[in-house]
Amino acid sequence: MRELTYYVAVSLDGFIAGPEGQFDAFLLEGDHMAALTGRFADAIPTSFAQALGIAQERSTFDTVLMGWNTYAVGLPDMPSPYAHLRQVVFTRRDPDPVDGVDFTDADPVGVVRELKAQDGAGIWLCGGGALAASLASEIDRLVLKVNPVLFGDGIPVFGRGGYAPSAFTRTAATAFASGVTLLEYARS
């Protein structure tokens, strides 16, 4: 069965974006970048990976899930940010069709359960916090890129709650000289 991995950058105080949705304080340079782009190449926007000559083999992830606000970050320049992956965007809006992007207002839990039953590589939950909260019971792995910054307010890693308590076991912790720490957990 496929796994759902919530792979996301987070501040020390638990936010995936600031009060206005900004995430530019996250470190995009440093010794952590080579390790992350090597291991998680599938989680790099397609056009960036092509420009950097990074191969995306869909071996880690072949599907990406995101909420509308996460998807809209790249608009209008990048209407299909992860063209190398199956892209599912959860939204109540009725956007114009985009090749390679499946917009849906279906129940996220039901969609994830259907995806898990299919053959393929992993499923990546890209964001946002409210979607993560709604899918908390379905998340098999957490991979948190903890950045050495404080936002003070913003979008919490798991929205405003509303999910049942869950236990996870730490499977790895990698500290980089940049100050970023990669924390990995599996559902207990």
UniProtKB/TrEMBL annotation:
InterPro entries referenced in this protein's UniProt entry, alphabetically: DHFR-like_dom_sf, RibDG_C, Riboflavin_Biosynth_HTPR
GO molecular function, one term: 5-amino-6-(5-phosphoribosylamino)uracil reductase activity
Pfam families for this protein: RibD_C
Gene Ontology BP annotations: riboflavin biosynthetic process
Domain spans labelled Bacterial bifunctional deaminase-reductase C-terminal: 4-180
Protein name according to UniProt: Bacterial bifunctional deaminase-reductase C-terminal domain-containing protein
